Amino acid sequence: MTEITLKRLSGFKFEAENSLGKKAILDGPAKIGGSDDGVRPMEMVLMGLAGCSSFDVLSILQKGRQQVDDLEVKVQAERADAVPAVFTKIHLHFRASGDVSEKRLAQAVELSMEKYCSVSAMLSKSAEITHSYEIMGT
Predict the structure, then answer these.
(1) N- or C-end of the chain: fewer Cβ atoms within 10 A?
(2) Per-residue pLDDT tens for 6-42?
(3) C-alpha pair distances (Å), 122 with each of 71, 84, 129, 137
(4) Do 4 and 47 share a structural domain?
């Protein structure tokens, strides 16, 4: 079982803590009483997607004996103009560097997005998720 505790610090600023004591700060914009000192909840969802898929991609590449020096993901998303303002479109762009085959990177990204990433599987129920990749320095 996964467990998170969320505690209000002030205004719309909250501290989330996992069962290992790792913490993250969430905060709202000033227009609702926040102080812009943390990540918005929907941004955190995108961070979870980027993290989940990156773990997969890196693991798959390493198992394929690819030498990954760096991996980054840029996520862009659009939300509905209604309440709830769910994500409707999400695009992830993976950038890898090192001795990495383009074919292996493409396979790793595809496997993560279509088979392994739990966050992607959940979000795909309401959003069109697309992805692209590149090898840095080529």
Answers:
(1) N
(2) 999 999 999 999 999 999 999 999 999 999 999 999 9
(3) 23, 16, 11, 33
(4) no
